[in-house]
Amino acid sequence: IIIQNIGGLLNSDKLKTKISNFNSANYSEKQLTIDEFMLDHRFKIMVIRQFANKQEAMSYHDHLFDNDSVYGDVSPDNYKQFAISANNLPEVLKQKKADDYENFFRSFYK
User: What percentage of the chain's residues is helix, strand, coil (to nearest 5)?
Assistant: First the structure.
């Protein structure tokens, strides 16, 4: 799962803590990890991993996306969230084009 911070308007430390708490409460058996990367000088992304398959990732994606304890005080304009495969993540990081991947996600995962 990728969460893209748009324009640096999210407090990434606060969001990371909220996601970590969400994971502990709902997915403690999965031992998910959260990493952060600068996509470019404007955008930071947070990567939550590892999921066994597309269905597991999408179930998590939908649960997280709808969770008010994580996103309740965050404007939807300040972030984007989407699932990504382990094969596609290095390519997005290399090309620094999360927007292009978002279009693929919308057609392939939804």
Answer: 50, 20, 30
Type of residue numbered 76: P
First to last CA, the chain: 14
pLDDT digits (tens, 9 = 90+) for 87-97: 888 888 887 77
Distance CA 57, CA 7 (A): 26
> Cα angle at 54 between 15 and 44, to 5 degrees?
30
Tokens 């066994």 appear where? 52
The two beta strands, 44-49 and 2-5, are antiparallel
Quick one: DSSP state of residue 29? G
CA gap 85, 61 in Å, rounded? 13
Q: What is the pLDDT of residues 35-63, one digit of tens each?
A: 998 877 777 789 999 999 989 999 999 99
